Structure formats: C-alpha cells, structure tokens
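Colleagues,

For the teaching module next term, I've prepared a clean inverse folding example: a structure given as tokens, and then the sequence designed for it. I'd like students to try predicting residues themselves before seeing the answer, so please don't circulate the second half yet.
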C-alpha cells in the first residue's frame, strides 16, 4: 500500500507493468502463468471431501437444485451459489475431475487479475507484481488443487469484484454502482462466509486513504452489508456446530487458550507467506498450554507489532492498515469461533487465501518502491521475474501431492507422522482397495494417537471381520457404539461381527439399533433379514428384504434373499421375479445363480436348476465344486455323458475330488 494520505494519480505510482493495464497483455500473461504453475494439478483426481461438493446423485435434478437453495443440510455447508456452480459443472462434465480443476485454475487467475485491478485503483505501487505473487504463491496451491476449495477461488472472485465495484461507487456515488457492488457481495456470501469481512475491510481502506471515517459517507452505506454478513456468519457457525460436528471435548478451549491460539495462528500464517517451506495438507495440532511461557510470546508479539504500527501511523498508515486487514480477514479462523477442521489442526493453507492479500500488497509495494529508488527498471523487472519463477516452481512442486488421494495422505504422513486423520483415511483407502492387512496397523496407530476415535474403532472392527477375525472385531465395534451411540454404521458392523462369531441372536439387537439411528439404511435392513432367515424366521425376514429393496432398488443381494425367504414361506412362484431381478442386477456374481439353483432343487425343478448351475460354471470355470454340483443335477436328469464331462473337469482341477462321484 502506498505511504500517502491522499492517493496520488496512478501514473505517479504505477510500475511499467501497470501502464499496460488489463487492456493489454498483462491479464492473459497472468492467466498463462497460473496454468503453467498449476499444470500438474490438472492430472489430479478427487480427494478427501470432494464427494460432498461434486453434486450427489440425489441433487442432480432441477428439484435437487432447489434443495441446494432451500434445504439446509442438503449440502455439507449452506453455500448455495457454490453448490449451484458444482451442479452446473456436473451437467457439463459429470464426474471427470479435469473440468473442475480447469475451473479452479481459471477462477484463481481471475481472482489474481481482480486483485491487481483493486490495487491499481488504490494507486498501490507494484500492483501487478502483487497480483502475480498471489497467483503463484505456493500457499494458494491447496485452494486451487483441491476441488472442494472452489469455495475459496469462486468467493474470492465475487469478493474482489464487490470491492472493485464499491470503490467505483465511493468515487462516483451512483446508485447503480452500489447495487452492482451489493450484488457481488451477496454472491460472495452465498459462496463462502469468510467474505463477510469485506465491509470492515473497505472501512480500513477508506481510513488508510483519508485518515478518517465519515459516518454518512463511509459507514452508513455499509450497514446493510454488516447485517447480512453477521446473519451469514451466525448461520454458518450454527451449521458447523450442529450439522458438521464442531463441538465436544476436542473444541473445549477456554477464553485464555483461544487468545493464545489466535496469537500463534497469526504468526504461523505470516511465516508461511514469507518463507513457504514445509507446506502440508494437515499441519500438526498444537497443544495450547497457558502455563508454558512460550505460549504467551505469540500473542504478546502480535500485540506489540500492532501497537508499534499504530504508533507510527502518522508517518504511514499503510502497514497498520495491512495488519488490520490481515487480522480481520483471518478472524473467523483465529480460534474464537469453532470450525470442524480444528478437530485435527488449528491451521490450514486455504484458511489464509483471502487474508494473505493485504500482506502481499504491502510487501510488494515496499519492494517495488525500494527497487525503484535503488535499481534501474530492467534490473527491477529481472528481479521480479526471478521471484515469480521461484514461487511458480514451488507451486508446481506442491501440486504433486494432490495428484491422487493416496499420494496426498502418504505425503501428509511423511511430513506429519502423528496425523491420525491422514492415517485413518489412508487405512480406509487401503481396505477399500483390498489391502486390508496394510490397513490394520495404521488403524491401531490411529487409536494410539487419538484414543476414543469412534470412526477408527469402527474401521478397525470392519477390517478384522474382513480378515476372518470377527471375535477380535467385536470389542472395537462395541467401543465405537459406546463412544458414538448414534453411529448407525458401527451398530451395523457390530451386528455383522456378532453374526460371523456365531452369535446370530445377539446380532439382531445391533441391526435393530442401526435402523433406529438411521431408518433409511438398506444394508442394515438386509442384514437383519438375513439373520432372521438363519434363525428360521423367514416370514419376518420378508419384510426387511422388501424394505431394503425399496430403499435401494439396485440391491441384488436383497432381491436374492427376498426370493429365498418367499420360497420358504409362499413358494417358488412368488419368489421367481425376485431371483430373476437379482440375476439381471448382478449377472457376474456366481452366488446369485447358485442360490437360485438351490431353491429350484428344493422345489424339484431340476431342468431349471441345471441352467443356473451351468451359469455358475461359466462364471467360475476353475472351481471344481461348481463342476461337481452341476454333475449331480445332470445325472439325476439322465444326462450321463454331460455329467461325466463335468466330473472329469472337476478331477482335472482338483485330483483329490476324483473319488467323489455324484
């Protein structure tokens, strides 16, 4: 920011870059620089909570778009304009991540361009240098490479467009300018609530420009903005607390601890701006201990710095204005208001996406002004180019960790070995990809680092069941439901572990508990019905299989067991449609025709059973037992040559079965 009470004409403060302005080559050059620095992230996929932002199946219709706007809880956070953008993008390119990454790059480049325009309008020296530094600084990588953080890039575009329009209104006092600025600000609030800090930021800018604030000119027009921002902030805080889960023992800091935390957060972000080393997706979570003398150094140093800047405001208001803008924009994440990520870390790079702008503006203005006095224009441009090339290279390197979700968590653990969240999420990825033995030690480590984490207890119990150790799984799943009594998935997994441990009768209570917590839980309905079948209570099971299929029409296993239950109660004719639909839903699953064949055999329908067993053999050509089962039925049908061929095939696959003649 310029060191002046009355802004000088742009020609007096602009750099050689500034003179070209947006009408020349500077905008396309800036966008090209963004694409070059962030090129690796275009190959990236979806990570962490991207599935909560890329539009879910139930929201992809026009009715779903209405729910995005009118139903709080339909999306992870009530940011309807953001989720409308995701809705539109899904219409354009579906689940392909490339399109979302391209939009994020374009939005970040546009935000950088608007930042340059705002600084140019304010007659700040080195305006376009600051814009390029923001575009290429590696602390922005998290916001640009992570699809979910389109909330940052899109809201920044609206925020800066609103600021630019309001600066025009402040100069011209035309109602149309005010209306345009208010519309951009409303768009920003509907995209991300941190933009509620804009009216306060504008007041700081006017104080910096004029040395005073006038109630009628400066404050009164922004009152509606303050009210809208306050309402938006209160709503978001409530959603964070009640819907997302930012409450409980992990968030129980007292007022003193929050003050100490805020001081440390401020210096952390400043440090990463000045020296962007050791950036990571999840930083270590600090322990805030008021009895440790070092804890007091951060807030005291911050207060001393603000005091020193206040004392020298008569010489220059710019440093104090930049500090106030930085602190004010960071306020929502300083620790005074709980947000869900505080569960695992008090800081994140994307938290300072907007807050870094005034600091970058101040530093770049100082550097450009000093270079203008000490170095010729050519050397000044060369130095700027070297700085930007270095930042771009760091951003290029930082993009690599966002290539895929496995790489992201592996890199996070390499840089922050005690990050229990990354360890848990990596274990889930391993388990879902069939690497269950690798997942178990990770989950055991998670429970060492973060005892009482119900999700990890549930994941470990589920993995132990998959490894054939249901008895070992039961204690972990019992702890999970004790820690989180409303955790429906853990109740369901406990039921599975009890069932597989031979405690079928006990599992009924667990499945019933899962359904009490989540009535629309098709897997729990199916599991409850399956246990009832085992306990010879087929008539009761029918109801649960029917409900499972109602909740999930493509549930092949539930259709199959529905057919089995009907075979045992009503008879084969009523069961046939369900067997047929199960086979149509999952034609590659050999269990389905095998089960259907057993039902047909019980009904004496040998010809039809043979057809289903032939399907099993086609799906499992290397399974000797499948060949023998078919041979038994073929022999009963008098098709002896075919039966002999199946016996020979079984003997070739497993010579030990040669003596087992049907």
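(Answer key — instructors only)
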């Amino acid at each position: 920011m310029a060191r002046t009470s009355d802004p000088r004409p742009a020609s007096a403060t602009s750099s050689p870059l500034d003179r070209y302005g947006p009408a020349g080559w500077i905008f396309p050059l800036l966008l090209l620089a963004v694409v070059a620095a962030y090129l690796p992230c275009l190959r990236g996929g979806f990570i962490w909570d991207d599935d909560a932002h890329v539009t879910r199946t139930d929201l992809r219709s026009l009715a779903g778009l209405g729910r995005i706007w009118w139903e709080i809880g339909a999306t992870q956070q009530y940011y309807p304009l953001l989720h409308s953008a995701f809705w539109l993008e899904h219409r354009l390119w579906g689940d392909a991540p490339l399109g979302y990454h391209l939009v994020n790059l374009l939005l970040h480049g546009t935000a950088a361009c608007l930042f340059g325009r705002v600084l140019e309008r304010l007659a700040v020296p080195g305006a376009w240098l600051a814009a390029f530094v923001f575009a290429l600084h590696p602390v922005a990588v998290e916001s640009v490479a992570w699809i979910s953080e389109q909330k940052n890039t899109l809201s920044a575009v609206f925020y800066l467009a609103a600021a630019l329009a309001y600066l025009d209104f402040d100069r011209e006092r035309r109602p149309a300018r005010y209306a345009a600025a208010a519309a951009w600000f409303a768009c920003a609030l509907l995209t991300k609530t941190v933009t509620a800090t804009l009216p306060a930021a504008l007041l700081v800018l006017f104080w910096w420009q004029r040395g005073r604030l006038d109630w009628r000119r400066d404050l009164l027009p922004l009152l509606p903005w303050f009210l809208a921002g306050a309402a938006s902030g209160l709503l978001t805080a409530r959603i964070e607390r009640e819907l997302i889960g930012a409450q409980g023992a992990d968030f129980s800091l007292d007022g003193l601890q929050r003050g100490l935390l805020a001081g440390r957060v401020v210096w952390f972000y400043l440090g990463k701006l000045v020296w962007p080393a050791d950036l990571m997706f999840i930083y270590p979570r600090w322990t805030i201990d008021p009895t440790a003398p070092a804890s007091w150094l951060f807030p005291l140093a911050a207060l001393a710095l603000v005091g020193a800047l206040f004392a020298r405001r008569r010489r220059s208001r710019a440093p104090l204005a930049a500090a106030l803008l930085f602190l004010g924009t960071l306020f929502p994440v300083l620790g005074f208001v709980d947000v869900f990520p505080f569960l695992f870390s008090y800081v994140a790079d994307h938290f300072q996406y907007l807050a870094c702008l005034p600091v970058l503006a101040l530093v770049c203005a100082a550097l450009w002004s000093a270079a203008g006095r000490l170095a010729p224009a050519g050397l000044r441009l060369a130095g700027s180019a070297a700085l930007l090339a270095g930042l771009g290279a760091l951003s290029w390197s930082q993009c690599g960790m966002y290539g895929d979700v496995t790489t992201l968590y592996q890199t996070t653990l390499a840089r922050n070995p005690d990050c229990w969240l990354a360890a848990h999420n990596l274990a889930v990825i391993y388990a879902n990809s069939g690497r269950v033995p690798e997942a178990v030690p990770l989950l055991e480590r998670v429970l060492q680092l973060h005892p009482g984490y119900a999700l990890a207890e549930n994941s470990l119990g589920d993995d132990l069941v998959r490894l054939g150790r249901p008895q070992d799984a039961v204690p972990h799943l019992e702890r999970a439901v004790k820690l989180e009594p409303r955790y429906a998935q853990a109740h369901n997994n406990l039921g599975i572990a009890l069932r597989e441990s031979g405690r079928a009768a006990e599992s009924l209570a667990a499945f019933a508990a899962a359904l009490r917590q989540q009535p629309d839980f098709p897997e729990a309905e199916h599991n409850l019905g399956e246990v009832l079948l085992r306990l010879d209570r087929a008539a009761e099971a029918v109801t649960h299989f029917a409900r499972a299929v109602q909740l999930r029409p493509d549930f092949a296993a539930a259709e199959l067991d529905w057919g089995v239950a009907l075979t045992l109660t009503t008879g084969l004719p009523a069961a046939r449609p369900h067997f047929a639909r199960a086979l149509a839903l999952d034609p590659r699953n050999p269990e389905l025709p095998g089960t259907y064949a057993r039902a047909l055999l019980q009904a004496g329908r040998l010809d039809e059973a043979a057809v289903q067993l032939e399907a099993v053999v086609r799906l499992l050509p290397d399974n000797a037992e499948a060949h023998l089962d078919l041979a038994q039925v073929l022999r009963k049908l008098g098709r002896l040559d075919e039966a002999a061929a199946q016996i020979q095939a079984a003997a070739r696959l497993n010579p030990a079965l040669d003596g087992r003649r049907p």
